[in-house]
Amino acid sequence: MLAKKGQLMLLLAACVSIAGCSGSNGDASGNGNNSKNANTGDQGKKQEEEAALPMINGKYDPPVTITTVKKIATPTTFKNGETADDNVHYKWAEEKLGIKIENLWSVVNTSDAYNTKLKLMLSSNEKLPDVVFAAGEVAQMLIDSGKFREVGPLFDQYASESWKQAMNEAPTAWYEFTRDGKRYGIPNLDYDYNNDPVLWVRKDWMEKLGLPEPVTIDDYEKMLDAFKNNDPDGNGKADTYGTAVGLKDSYGNMFSLSWVFGAYGSLPEMWLEQADGKLGYGSVQPQIKEGLAKLKDWVQKGYIPMEAGIWDQGKAGSFMSAGKAGSFTGPFWSEAWPMGDMNVNNPQAELTTFKLPTGPDGKTMHYGSHPYTGALLINKDMEHPEIFFTYANYLFDHVVNPEAGSEYEHGWAEGYDWAKVDGEVTYDLNKVPGGGVRVFFYSLLDGGPRIPSLNVSALVKVAANGKAETPYEKIWSGFVPPIELESATDVWNQRDTRFKNAYTGGSTETMKLKWDYLRKLELKTFSDIIFGDKPVDSFDDFVTEWKSQGGDRITEEVNEWYTSVAGK
Question: Is the pTM above the cut of 0.90?
Answer without folding.
Answer: no
